[in-house]
Amino acid sequence: MNNNKGSMYEVHISLAIIKIFLTCLMAFYIFSHLAGQTVFRKGVTLNDVLSAKGRINVDLPIIAATPRDPLPVYHLEDDLTPEERMKTKIYMWAFQIAEQYSIEPSLILAVAQKESHYQPDVNGSGAIGLMQIIPSCHVERISRLGITDIWDPYSNLLIGADLIAELLCKYKDPGLALMCYNMGEGKALYKYSNNGYSGYVHEVLRIKDEIERSELYGTYSHQTKVASSESRDS
């Protein structure tokens, strides 16, 4: 009698396992079939989430791996601290780079402030410099830009700006581009489809607005407009 009960128990267990397996198989089939049809916000599909990593479908300008010479003529006061002088240079470079990529300098600066507080020697868990670049994730980008020293502040800023420009071209949404910059495209697209923008996005956009109202930013913005006007007139 006990043997019969044991046999029946084993049969029920086997049938349950088979049922679970078939259910999982069916769910996988439905998921795979509908993957390309599932549309997230702003036309982002599930296929975008699954294939985002490593995808580069935009043509970016060729940017010099060193800053233009001479730099913009904002006077570097002798009484500035080393940190203030570095910040002033970063503003110069951001305006130079942003002009070539046709993006807002304040967006580059906001990311630099959020990532490193304009400290070029920051090294956090393998992420390096002003824009917290992870070298292994940007081997092709670093080679394309002709960069030989990722610790160099201008070069580091350029790598980050190049990535921002790529993401803006790809997704046409500054908030989503910032999320991808912060957490990678696959994870960012999934999170965006369910919860919208992350706290990182809101913080960077807040910093961006603050930068645009600063005196230093206003100085370079005015110089850029004057230089552009003189270039058109000549």
Provide a descriptive summary of the structure in words.
- The protein has 234 residues and is mostly helical.
- The chain is 64% helix and 2% strand.
- It is built from 10 helices and 2 strands.
- It has helices at 2-34, 46-51, 82-101, 105-116, 139-144, 153-171, 174-183, 185-195, 199-212, 215-233; strands at residues 123-124, 127-128.
- The protein has a two-stranded antiparallel ribbon.
- A hairpin with a 2-residue loop joins strand 1 (123-124) and strand 2.
- Helix 3 (82-101) runs parallel beside helix 6.
- The radius of gyration is 25 Å and the shape is elongated.
- It starts with a helix and ends with a helix.
- 28% of the residues are buried.
Q: How many strand segments?
A: 2
- Alpha carbon gap, first and last residue: 104 Å
Shape summary: elongated
Order of helices and strands: HHHHEEHHHHHH
Structural class: mainly alpha
Largest sheet, spatial ordering of strands: 1-2
Radius of gyration: 25 Å
Q: State mean pLDDT (0 to 100 scale).
A: 78
Enumerate how many helices there are, as a single number: 10
Main sheet specs = 2 strands, antiparallel
- Determine the fraction of residues in helical runs and give it as a percent range: 55-70%
Strand content: under 5%
Poorly predicted runs are 29-46, 48-58, 70-74
